[in-house]
Amino acid sequence: MNKVNIIMAAYNGEKYIKDQIESILHNSFENWMLWIFDDGSKDQTESIIKKYIQQYPQKIRYYRNNTNKGVTRNFLEGVKLVTQLNNQEENEKKHNHYYMFCDQDDVWMGEKIYKTLKQMKKAEKRYGSEKPVAVFTDAIVVDEKLNIQQSSFYKTSNLNTNRRDLAHMLMENKLIGCTIMFNGALADRLDVIPKNARYHDWWIALIASAIGHITYLKEGTLLYRQHENNVVGNQSFLTYVKNRISNLHKQKEILDITIKQAREFYNIFEKDLTGNKKALVYDFVHIKENSWFMRRKLILSKGYLKTGLIRNIGLLLLI
């Protein structure tokens, strides 16, 4: 039987976490386990969670980190621990375990788990369950009171969900963490936790695009809540452009961090990369060692591109 492991990263989430837990409890797919990793909350988050554990002791697990890890490491280390625990269980089959990231402040639609798993099963039927597979979906953007602001995150952000190949993923992440599901074959690849991953969802995207597959469900499966305390949130394309123009120095630093992420990815997965994909990551990692002309030639010829003309003009100026 398929089992879905929901990995929630929590931190000072007392304001919204009840809404999120309730939405998971009311999902149509019932064979799930919610694993909550608290990154050192100082509010009532822990007491709220423990009340739910008393009501649903077989459905919710709670871990409190000794030190604050930050959202990316909290998610990835959470998956690693859950994977290890699942693999230790007798008679468990890895290909029956699936994993989803969960933010503490969103609200899941009633069939989010079922519909995402259905898409996952289609992908595994096509590519094989032994291959790392990731599924991501759209999200409905709402304000803190759940009033709809935008019906599609991707339409608002002007991100091309069709550009899911490795070259594009090296330069620009397309996956929203709170919409992702990935299979056991991908979860097993998190035995080494990166130090330089920019975001947990980006790291998953790199693994899937490099040694597996990514598929997209064009449907909003959750209410993606935007509020003043979002770690990473939605922004319009116009806001994105304004932010980039106003701080070019910072954008160069971000590009360097993106390359640093790719370098660690290459070091960890070099043996798993084959042929063209190995060369693709290697050339990206070393792109700044080339001349002014060659850097831009590599961007265009290899396809290390972002979504849209404006973003790519900015990229060519910065590189």
TrEMBL record:
Residues in domain Glycosyltransferase 2-like?
A: 6-125
Q: Supply the InterPro entries for this chain.
A: Glyco_trans_2-like, Nucleotide-diphossugar_trans
GO molecular function of the protein, one example? hexosyltransferase activity
Q: Which Pfam families match?
A: Glycos_transf_2 (PF00535)
Keywords from the named record: Transferase
Q: What is this protein called?
A: Glycosyl transferase family 2
Q: Can you name the source organism?
A: Anaerocolumna aminovalerica
